[in-house]
Amino acid sequence: MRIISGANKGKKLFQPDSKFTRPLRDMVKESLFNLLNHSNKFEIDIKNSNVLDLFAGSGSFGLECISRGASNVYFFEKEENILKILKKNIDLITNKNNHKIFALDVFKFFKSKKIIDKKFDIIFIDPPFKELKIIELILDIKKKEIIQKEGIIIIHRPKKDTLEMNKNFHILEERNYGVSRIFFVSFFINSTAG
């Protein structure tokens, strides 16, 4: 696992030795960032953007954004042993002053009255594949009003996932990679939702 492009291109990242994490594979990450850069379905400029990386794990997604010039990346990761790996990976990069780490449970945080001091252009949600409360989480995030008007949410799920994303959100793009499915969605509820 490595940083693909930008100021820290080629840096190899540490990976947690844990059955509870599922690192974002380089091939999937490269395709994801190609879509962010070149799709005509959304207008996202990673450079100077604010990024929220939920269930950050080793930080692969957020660190890629930092390498490509993101203004700020906020990482959420609650597992202590994985946090150590995330911090080691942050220490590898050259431009490490534009991030914050929240050692908190994502679900509890977004149910609480706690606030974040940024509005985000990109929110990346990559929970364990067994996690089922994704729609509920996104609705809780929406209530906090922390995404820019043109911002997008990227959700990494198993290809066999039975979540009906299209009934709750406007899907801008959907791609399958091996056992993974990536959703790019806008943060307004589809008017046809029941």
Gist of the model:
The chain is of the alpha/beta class.
Could you characterize the architecture of this molecule?
The chain has five helices and seven strands, in the order H-E-H-E-H-E-H-E-H-E-E-E. It is of the alpha/beta class and 194 residues long. The chain has one domain: Rossmann fold, CATH 3.40.50. Strands 3-2-1-4-5-7-6 form a seven-stranded mixed sheet, with helices on one face. Strand 2, helix 3 and strand 3 form a beta-alpha-beta unit. The termini are far apart. The C terminus is likely disordered.
The CATH architecture is 3-Layer(aba) Sandwich
Strand order of the largest sheet: 3-2-1-4-5-7-6
Number of strands: 7
Helix percentage range: 25-40%
- Class based on secondary structure composition and strand pairing: alpha/beta
Approximate strand percentage: 15-25%
> For the report, how would you describe the main beta sheet?
7 strands, mixed
Structural domain tally: 1
- The whole-number mean of residue pLDDT values reads 87
CATH class: Alpha Beta
- Name the poorly predicted regions: 189-194
Query: How widely separated are the two ends?
Result: 41 Å
The helix/strand series, from N terminus to C terminus, equals HEHEHEHEHEEE
Shape: globular
The fold-level CATH name is Rossmann fold
Q: Over all CA atoms, what is the radius of gyration?
A: 16 Å
Task: Work out the helix count.
Answer: 5
Q: CATH homologous superfamily?
A: Vaccinia Virus protein VP39
